[in-house]
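Sharing a chain and its predicted structure for anyone who wants a worked example. Both blocks are below, sequence first, tokens second.
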Amino acid sequence: MITFEALFKISYGLYIVGSGDKERGNGFISNSVFQVTSEPPKFAVCCNKNNFTSEFIRQSGAFSISVLSKDASPDLFGRFGFRSGKDVDKLDGILVKYGETGVPIVLNDTIAWLECKLMQTVDVGTHLIFIGELLHAEILDDMKEPLTYQHYRKVRKGVAPKNAPTYIDKSKLKIKPTN
């Protein structure tokens, strides 16, 4: 038996993973970002194969990670978490910096960002794990706290979109969510 609520006890942060270039870029909300090595520093991001951004990461060979602040705007979650870049330009009207590789880096409500060169792609079924070597990282606001998935779920009453690796069909939950 699996008590799916136990999965909510795993700790995550919330990030915007971006890729592409100045001509066309995209990004998505991710709670599956983690450091996998220290020398050299490498990071892994998990992306649904159907996410438009996965195409950009494979084509550009690079990605960015924007670490969101605890008070990040709900508009960012709507734009980057619940809309497709195939239908809308997610970067339109967003404060963006372009990294050394040319990838877009979202600066809105971002407290730090990282830029990685793609080193490896691992197919894990519905998702791809992109592993990138860190090229550049910067702190934008050392005073603000990063947003955690637990805070997003419990305090902000947010849910994971269907493409997220942490998505759980509500029918599988014993304790039904209030939202």
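Comments welcome. The radius of gyration is 16 Å.
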